[in-house]
Design brief:
The complex is a heterodimer of chains A (289) and B (751).
Chain A (H helix, E strand, L loop, with lengths): L5 H4 L6 E7 L2 E2 L6 H16 L13 E8 L11 E8 L11 E9 L4 H4 L6 E2 L3 E6 L1 H15 L3 E3 L4 H12 L10 E7 L6 E7 L1 H11 L8 H19 L7 E6 L3 E4 L3 E4 L5 H16 L1
Antiparallel strand pairs in A: 1-7, 1-8, 1-13, 2-6, 3-4, 4-5, 5-7, 9-10, 9-11, 11-12, 12-13
Helix pairs in contact in A: 2-4
Chain B lengths: L4 H4 L26 H7 L5 H20 L10 H17 L3 H12 L5 H9 L9 H13 L4 H14 L7 H5 L1 H6 L7 H11 L7 H14 L3 H13 L23 H15 L40 H13 L9 H7 L16 H9 L3 H18 L11 H18 L4 H10 L9 H8 L10 H15 L2 H29 L11 H26 L3 H14 L2 H5 L9 H8 L4 H28 L9 H18 L4 H4 L10 H6 L18 H11 L14 H12 L3 H10 E2 L8 E2 L5
Antiparallel strand pairs in B: 1-2
Helix pairs in contact in B: 3-4, 3-5, 4-14, 5-6, 5-7, 6-8, 8-11, 11-13, 12-13, 18-20, 19-21, 21-23, 22-24, 23-24, 23-25, 24-25, 24-27, 25-28, 28-34
Classes of the chains: A alpha+beta (289), B mainly alpha (751).
């Protein structure tokens, strides 16, 4: 479904997002978003001044906005994404324009039918959580959600196998102007000094290689991904006599997006946003089950 | 030589786990109900030691109750003794509620020297709760000013730290004015402020108090503790407090936790460890301070609290919600079993379901409620926590092994309590066993294995048996025995579960998990075959140690009785690799155990045969003739080995002892024909020697052939008297002794 308004999801682009998997939220309701914002902002204030009483609802240093993003989902079965934004009010002037966005977090589910079909009504299935901003805020917001909706968060690491899938999939995508190089970063961690190897390929070359590997357009198999990576490895070996297959793939960046094994993603093309999120949703669901 | 046989037969299937079953009275928190009881509840189970400790605490309390003025600590050995007793008990398991009145009374009355008072106050660590009355009476001591300033200060700090442990606070709230008057004391002022901060409710905020605080602030300057109290007053009554207070203050109160916090946590942990099921965590404040880690990976079981979200949606809604709040019973207030019974219809579940693991009262509730969302919430939480904290799957986790162990222990205890395994736990085991080293958290993991639910899940072989077998064969004898022990428990849990389902099936309940009886029988059979296989291999690898044989035979003690005791139409004989090592064991314990098992097999098979004949209809499950044949072969071998000395000739089992006479002659053993019967069997020969010594004290030639005829019967009686009960029931059931002259024959089950 590509008819989502790209303007409304543009905030996701060109930023680094940390990935988490979240178990289904219990008794979460889209009707109470404003109340959630108020409670969450009181919670943040309380966390910041350890153990002292805080009044709910008054103007606090940090403003919390919780909103629904109906544009960010795959199918009608998916829940609308939930965006949480924290802004800092400057203490000198109370004007609205002085607010500065310090942290955002986005719960979403793009084609997450695997999970959402199975769970009962009381639960809301938003298995993928992306955050941008200081981890201290992630911690506070996360704890509040954990306490309030009885869910658990886990950092969503991306395995080398999944990274190689991303490399293959994204290489094959059409982009108007191919300016960004396809880059793969490998890590050799067993050495006394850790060594990172960066392997950059011209995107057109990479695409040409992938096109020879892929048999049916629109369909990718594990075998094809393996062949693609093996070709890249043997090319590298021919030049540098290094077996990349013995190292660990830690990062993939292409014109579509870049992903790091620690669970960090950066979206670069709005037209492929849904596709990447769908893949990440799938990873998050397998993480939960 | 005394075996456990006696207690064996009448055992009911469901009593197996009574160790971890609950004693309802243990949930009462004491204090307000029955102080005596609560003292006992908080004792650790090693009773002997505790008995004496209990005594010394009682003595100490009665001493302090009667103590006269000014006893010198240095000169009076009784005071020394009792003081140390109080201190050591307090630090080890905390003090019972009734101790506080006595000890606070003596510490604040100024009867004894300050060093004694200080030590007493420092050891006032509660095991459960602190009675409000003891606190109120100590406040009155504070007012008469009998004790020194230092003791007063220490008392206030104690009160602040223990505030949440006081069982009621109504009377304490009534003393607000008294505490407020202490503000004028400059030294006490910071602590009094902190205490008032804890006590203040809206009705306490009065203009005269605000004025007094402002006066103090004018006198002493901007003090953070005064500001804290003022800001609280302002929060309650913004119209009365008009001054502006600085918005950001790092810390309002100095750390007044004093020497107690660590002790409280230690006592809490110890008491929790010692109780059969985790004690209720009655407070949210005293969570053990976990190490600094990433926010979402702390292994903390949440504390029960009601979900208060959606409370203030808008004004109108507010009223509705408040009304509803009156109706439901907040989970924080749930302290006793009787409260649970009274409010069970309006109890709200905690906002984080994981908290039920450490709240036995809620576990009772979980046990009787059928709500999918409860289990789903537990399932997700537990699954994530187990995976995230697993010390051998996640790098950098190994330093937290102790915490993970505790967690697994808690999960296991909960499973015992619910008599049911968690599916998240099962999945965790399947995922992580292939990566397990068999060492890390060993006993916890093996215990969790015992609660894998019974289902006709076909993957159990590749998920459980294969990884377990790999570890089994490559690990120590002790590990092998532990694995066998937990597989025995697993089998028993499955069988118990099956019995429960059978019982409830009359109430039209079908097997949950869609297990059919045949699927269930197959799963059980698969487990028994697996154990038979690993046992055979292990006996060879380890060279038949008695210790290992004991665990293997123990497993078969359950297997041989499945038909009669658990109503499962399945009997599986042990493989030859288990049977023959046991039969030829050098140890009478194993032989006796084997006899008992064969006797129970016989009883079960006979019962099955009779059932089959009497019902005259085709039963869904019939034991195969293979089982009967195998049983008969084993019995013939046993009778030949123990009775007729004919094992080498008569044994018909393909892997049995049948041997050619020519071959036997080559062994150069004289009288090989008689070398196996109850006299000559290596496991029995020791008895035969002792018997000969008693029967013919003068004969030193050890002429075993004397044991025959009437003497043979005496010898049998002698063996039975030595506690070989298994041998007795076997011989009495399986050997036909009517006509002794015509060769004794094996009793045949085949009808």
């Amino acid at each position: 479904k590509e008819n989502a308004d790209p303007q409304r999801t543009a905030f996701l682009l060109r930023k680094q997002w940390a990935l988490y998997s979240v178990t289904p939220l219990y008794r979460f309701s889209n009707a109470h978003l404003r109340a959630y914002a108020r409670l969450l902002s009181a919670f943040i204030a309380a966390e910041k001044q350890k153990g002292l009483a805080v009044e709910v609802g008054v103007e606090l240093d940090i403003k919390v906005a919780v909103s629904s993003l109906p544009d960010l989902r795959g199918s009608e079965q998916d829940q609308a994404a939930i965006l949480v934004q924290l802004s800092l009010r400057s203490s000198t002037s109370k004007k609205k324009s002085e607010e500065k966005l310090v942290w955002s977090g986005c719960f979403c589910c793009v084609f997450g039918d695997d999970l959402s079909e199975k769970i009962p009504q009381d639960f809301t299935c938003l298995p993928l959580f992306l955050t941008n901003g200081a981890e201290s805020y992630t911690s506070i917001v996360g704890s509040w959600f954990q306490k309030t909706f009885d869910c658990s968060f886990r950092r969503l690491a991306i395995s080398p196998l999944n990274l190689s899938w991303m490399a293959a999939m994204w290489t094959g995508c059409k982009v108007d102007k191919l300016t960004t190089a396809t880059e793969l970063v490998f890590s050799v961690s067993c050495l006394p000094q850790p060594l990172d190897i960066s392997y950059a390929i011209h995107p057109e070359d990479a695409k040409a290689l992938w096109d020879t590997v892929q048999k049916t357009p629109g369909e990718i198999t594990q075998e094809e991904v393996d062949v693609f990576m093996d070709c890249l490895y043997s090319h590298f070996h021919r030049h540098f006599k290094i077996h990349l297959s013995a190292t660990k793939l830690v990062k993939v960046s292409t014109a579509i997006a870049s992903a790091h094994c620690d669970g960090i993603i950066k979206f670069l093309q709005s037209q492929y946003l849904t596709g990447v999120l769908m893949l990440l949703t799938e990873l998050a669901i397998s993480h939960i089950q | 030589m005394q075996r456990r046989r006696t207690s064996k037969t009448p055992k009911q299937p469901l009593k197996v786990h009574h160790k971890n079953q609950t004693d309802l009275s243990a949930w009462q928190k004491g204090g307000r109900i029955d102080p005596e009881k609560s003292v006992q509840n908080h004792q650790s189970p090693n009773n002997q030691k505790n008995g004496s400790k209990q005594g010394s605490l009682e003595q100490a309390l009665s001493y302090f109750e009667k103590v006269q003025d000014r006893v010198s600590l240095k000169k009076d050995s009784a005071l020394q003794k009792h003081l140390t007793a109080v201190e050591s008990i307090a630090l080890q398991r905390g003090l019972p509620p009734e101790a506080f009145a006595v000890l606070l009374n003596v510490a604040l009355s100024g009867k004894l020297a300050d060093t004694v008072n200080t030590r007493l106050l420092k050891s006032l660590v509660p095991a459960s709760v602190i009675p409000e009355t003891s606190v109120v009476s100590s406040v009155s001591w504070l007012c008469v000013g009998k004790c020194s300033g230092n003791v007063q200060l220490l008392f206030l700090r104690w009160l602040i730290t223990m505030f949440d442990f006081i069982d009621h606070k109504e009377q304490l709230y009534a003393l607000y004015g008294f505490f407020f008057s202490f503000l004028q004391d400059e030294k006490m002022c910071p602590y009094v402020c902190h205490l008032l901060y804890l006590l203040t409710r809206k009705e306490n905020v009065k203009p005269f108090r605000i004025r007094r605080l402002l006066d103090l602030q004018a006198k002493m300057g901007m003090q953070s503790h005064l500001q804290a109290l003022l800001s609280l007053y302002k929060l309650f009554c913004p119209e009365l407090v008009t001054i502006t207070l600085p918005g950001k203050v790092k810390t309002y109160f100095k750390n007044s936790e004093g020497p107690w916090k660590a002790a409280i946590n230690a006592v809490r942990q110890r008491n929790q460890q010692n109780s059969p099921v985790p004690q209720p965590l009655f407070l949210g404040t005293a969570q053990p301070q976990s190490r600094k880690r990433k926010w979402n990976t702390q292994l903390i079981i949440p504390v029960s609290s009601t979900n208060k979200n959606n409370l203030e949606e808008d004004k109108e809604k507010n009223h509705v919600d408040l009304y509803r709040m009156n109706e439901s019973f907040p989970v924080e207030q749930l302290q006793t079993f009787s409260q649970l019974l009274q409010n069970i219809h309006r109890l709200e579940f905690p906002s984080q379901m994981g908290s039920v693991l450490i709240n036995p009262l809620l576990l009772h509730y979980v046990n009787c409620i059928k709500d999918e969302s409860i289990f789903l919430r537990l399932y997700y939480w537990m699954g994530q926590t187990l995976q995230e904290e697993c010390t051998w799957c996640v790098a950098d986790n190994n330093q937290y092994e102790e915490e993970f162990k505790d967690f697994l222990e808690t999960v296991y205890k909960t499973e015992c309590f619910l008599q049911e395994g968690f599916s998240s736990c099962e999945e965790f085991l399947y995922k992580t066993l292939p990566l397990w080293d068999g060492f890390c958290c060993r006993s916890q993991i093996l215990r969790l294995v015992t609660w894998i639910p019974l289902s006709s899940f076909s993957e159990i072989k590749s998920h459980l048996y294969d990884p377990l077998a790999q570890l089994f064969f490559t690990s120590s004898l002790y590990f092998k025995c532990s694995v066998l022990e937990s597989l025995k428990e697993l089998l028993r849990n499955w069988l118990n579960w099956h019995v429960v389902i059978l019982d409830s099936e009359s109430g039209s309940q079908v097997h949950s998990l869609n297990t059919t009886l045949s699927g269930l029988v197959n799963t059980v059979a698969e487990l028994i075959h697996f154990v038979g296989w690993i046992s055979t291999v292990a006996l060879r690898l380890e060279n038949n140690p008695t210790f290992l044989l004991y665990f293997i035979l123990d497993f078969y003690e359950t297997v041989c009785d499945m038909y009669l005791r658990y109503n499962l139409p399945l009997l599986i004989m042990p493989p030859a690799g288990v049977f023959y090592p046991a039969l030829l064991s050098m140890d009478s314990v194993s032989l006796n155990q084997l006899c008992y098992i064969m006797y129970r097999y016989r009883t079960n098979l006979v019962a099955a045969k009779e059932n089959e004949l009497s019902k005259r209809k085709i039963l869904q499950f019939k034991f195969s003739t293979q089982t009967y044949r195998e049983y008969n072969q084993y019995v013939i071998a046993m009778v030949g080995c123990l009775w007729t000395s004919s094992v080498f000739q008569k044994d018909v089992h393909p892997r049995g002892l049948c041997m050619d006479d020519e071959l036997l002659k080559k062994t150069a053993v004289q009288e090989f024909k008689t070398s196996f019967n109850i006299v000559y069997h290596p496991a029995m020969m020791g008895y035969a020697v002792l018997f000969l010594q008693q029967a013919w004290p003068d004969d030193t030639t050890f002429n075993f052939s004397l044991i025959k005829g009437k003497k043979w019967n005496w010898y049998l009686e002698y063996l039975y008297a030595q506690g070989l009960k298994g041998l007795k029931v076997f011989i009495e059931s399986s050997i036909n002794r009517v006509s002794q002259a015509s060769h004794n024959k094996a009793g045949n089950v085949e009808v």
